[in-house]
Amino acid sequence: MSEQPKDASAGSISWEYGIPLATNPFMLWDFTAVTVISVLGFYLLLGIMGLVVNGEMVLPPFQAAFIFIGILLGLFLLVSLLLFGNRFSATFTVDEQGVGYRVGSRGRWLTGAALAVGILSRRPGLVGAALLAQARETGRYNWDDIRRTTVHRRLRVVSLDDGWHTVLRLYCPPDIFDEVVARVQAHVAEAEDRPGPRDEHRPLRSPWYFLGWSAVSIVATIMTMVWPWLEDQDYRLSLLVGLPVFLTGFVSGTARQLIGAAAVIGSLYFLARLALAALAGFEYPSAETPDAWVGTYTFTLDSGALAVAALGGAIRVAMSGLAVLGRLDGPPTRRARRSR
Q1: d(Cα 57, Cα 70) in Å, to the nearest integer?
Q2: What is the arrangement of strands in the sheet containing 148-152, beginning at the earlier edge strand?
Q3: Contact 111, 117 (CB under 8 A)
């Protein structure tokens, strides 16, 4: 073990590291877990939409889910080896205030390219993934944000947890690994010993926040599509608008406000199209006089479903507006409440 300074937490240390991808057990586990959860969420969304639209749950064969997961895993390995050469460069910094990271130039360039391709090809899924990746190209966590550290000596990795999940993993070269471990553990211990009121401004979230935000944004999007007199393009528009609304709950800072602004504009545009469709007039043959035509407005048809769709749109505007106004800061954390 290398010799440590007397005060292991003093000063700052930065290093660049090429993080392995296809041969990294943490990457493989995280990618598989996210993929499985996404597929299950997709099946759940399809089932709910089937119940709302057709009155019965219609799901694709579950064999398709395994095939889809296998294809995504294969693509991940292919991209990791061909585009990144099995290495993803990042710079880490550990100082007295906290720990930060910054993605390497190649990763940032590929993210920008993916965003441009998604916009030009009008693929909302690719645009959303690129925006989410772009929002996480740099990040920083104060020591008050870290509750637990786990040292993986064989892999030279330090995992930093906020109490319910890993927020960051520090990949270290062998010559400074022991020093980084000592610094991180010293800073976390100091943060634990400081008075509790420091935590009252912390933006950490509990898992219930993410589950609640996801559920409300998905349900609101489903609500906007229950009125059967929308055009096909309006259904696609609603799904497209629902994506940034969903993402605003999972990013922070300027990225949240930018994505939230896009979600507000998209949500208001959808509501405007919904209003125009509801106020559109049409004529139909009179039951009493076959040769005569009777005029009415579309909003008189399935008015209850129209109200549900409008409510769903209003909920999405409200959620996006909270993100733009910066009103999504979290409440005091559990540790802060215990220390009062």
Answers
A1: 25
A2: 148-152, 157-161, 166-171
A3: no
β-bridge mates for residue 99, sequence order: 94, 141
Q: Highest mean pLDDT range out of 36-50, 135-149, 179-193?
A: 179-193
* % of residues, the chain, pLDDT over 90: 14
Answer yes or no: are the C-beta atoms of 315 and 251 closer than 8 Å.
no
- Class of residue 279 by CB neighbours under 10 A (exposed 0-12, middle 13-18, buried 19+): exposed
Residue pair 167/188 in contact by the 8 Å Cβ criterion: no
Give yes or no for a contact between 313 and 264, defined as CB atoms under 8 angstroms apart. Answer: no
Give the closest residue to 264 by CA, choosing from 326, 318, 210, 329. Answer: 318
Quick check: 193 and 335 in contact, CB under 8 A? no
Q: At what angle do helices 232-247 and 253-279 cross, to 10 degrees?
A: 160
How many residues would you count in the chain?
Answer: 340
Quote the strand ranges of the chain, DSSP E: 13-20, 87-94, 98-103, 138-142, 148-152, 157-161, 166-171, 281-285, 293-297
Model confidence, pTM: 0.54
Residue 48 CA, distance from chain mean position: 21
Q: What is the Cα Rg of the chain in Å?
A: 25
Confidence class for position 194, pLDDT limits 50, 70, 90: low
Token pair belonging to 214: 């996801």
Contact 256/323 with Cβ under 8 angstroms? yes
How far lies 220's CA from each of 11, 334, 338, in Å? Answer: 48, 29, 35
Torsion of CA 184, 169, 85, 77, to 10 degrees: 160
88, 102 in Cβ contact below 8 A? no
Q: 271 and 310 in contact (C-beta within 8 Å)?
A: yes
